[in-house]
């Protein structure tokens, strides 16, 4: 089953304040559950789980009805999970998750949905006069505040010794950034696909994704769960993760057939799906449990995000650590199925 909620994928990683959470909760709280398990996901974001969704594998493995409900904002996803209306969020952004749990939300990270460092970056506009990082002084930069794109920009500026106070940074959704670059209204824009490709039609990357990754700047979405539900039904969470990996294996073995299915589920063209997924990574169980992800680096990354958000006034106070919100045991137990 598929349900549609909200109106823009472009704000999918944003969660500006507790007011957004409470407002969305008041709406979602009036909706009755229509399935044994409800999973939130982003419709225009092509991922391997949509193959298993299309084939009914989640229902088969869990032995129950699974309702895949479309959401277009991280705020709405988190709110639905807090209200109990949604039990699992597939491909929730790191920023909304970090803000939610910092504010006390009983959510846990149980997996990495997708990695996409090459799908999220900053582009310098042709003709802007920015040939070196030092040239950014006095320039205008468009970026969606409170997102991983914003975090990457801040950390990139820090690494390149760009004085943030010397740059005019404007809060803009990625499609608006791409349009502003076309008009020449901004000198640099940051965001994710598909807007990133439109930005690149008028410019070049400030720093490659590979170089940013060498600094530890990963970009990924997560699989989050309602903590109470997961504690009551751990086998269901592990079974869900098993199907995610089964779907990833099938896509790798049957790329062309899967492309058609995923593009239909995502609601975008096959060409778009091929282009976007070529830059995606879908780590499976063993990689998920390694130090590169839930074994160590995810906690370090989330703590770094929270500290930067606190320093920039987007969080009142970061937690001392985020280990309590990272639960690799669900993926570990998926191997026993």
Automatic annotation (TrEMBL):
It is found in: Periplasm. It comes from the Bacteria. SUPFAM superfamilies: Periplasmic binding protein-like II. InterPro entries: SsuA/THI5 (IPR015168). Its main location: periplasm. Keywords: Signal. Residues 1-34 form the signal peptide. It holds the Pfam family NMT1. Residues 52-257 form the SsuA/THI5-like domain. Belongs to the bacterial solute-binding protein SsuA/TauA family. PANTHER family: ALIPHATIC SULFONATES-BINDING PROTEIN-RELATED, TAURINE-BINDING PERIPLASMIC PROTEIN. This is ABC transporter substrate-binding protein. It comes from Marinobacterium rhizophilum.
């Amino acid at each position: 089953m598929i349900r549609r909620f909200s109106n823009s994928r472009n704000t999918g990683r944003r969660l500006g304040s507790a007011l957004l959470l409470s407002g969305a909760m008041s709406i979602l709280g009036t909706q009755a559950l229509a399935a044994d398990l409800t999973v939130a996901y982003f419709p225009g974001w092509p991922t391997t789980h949509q193959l298993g969704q299309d084939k009914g594998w989640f229902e088969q493995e869990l032995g129950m009805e699974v309702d895949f409900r479309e959401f277009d904002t991280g705020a709405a996803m988190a709110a639905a999970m807090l209200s109990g209306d949604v039990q699992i969020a597939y491909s929730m952004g790191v920023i909304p998750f970090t803000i939610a749990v910092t504010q006390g939300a009983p959510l846990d990270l149980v997996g990495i949905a997708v990695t996409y460092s090459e799908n999220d970056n900053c582009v310098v506009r042709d003709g802007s006069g920015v040939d070196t990082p030092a040239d950014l002084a006095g320039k205008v930069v468009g970026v969606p505040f409170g997102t991983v794109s914003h975090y990457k920009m801040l950390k990139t500026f820090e690494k390149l010794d760009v004085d943030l106070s010397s740059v005019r940074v404007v809060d803009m959704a990625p499609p608006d950034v791409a349009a502003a670059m076309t008009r020449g209204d901004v000198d640099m824009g940051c965001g994710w696909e598909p807007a990133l490709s439109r930005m690149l039609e008028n410019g070049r990357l400030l720093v490659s994704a590979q170089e940013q990754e060498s600094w530890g700047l990963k970009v990924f979405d997560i699989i989050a769960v309602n903590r109470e539900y997961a504690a009551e039904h751990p086998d269901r969470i592990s079974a869900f993760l098993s199907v995610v990996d089964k779907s990833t294996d099938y896509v790798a073995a049957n790329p062309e057939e899967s492309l058609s299915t995923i593009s239909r589920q995502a609601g975008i063209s096959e060409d778009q799906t091929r282009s976007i997924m070529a830059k995606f990574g879908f780590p499976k169980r063993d990689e998920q449990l390694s130090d590169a992800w839930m074994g160590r680096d995810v906690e370090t990354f989330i703590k770094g995000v929270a500290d930067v958000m606190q320093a920039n006034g987007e969080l009142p106070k970061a937690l001392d650590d985020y280990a309590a919100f990272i639960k690799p045991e669900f993926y570990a137990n998926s191997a026993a199925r």
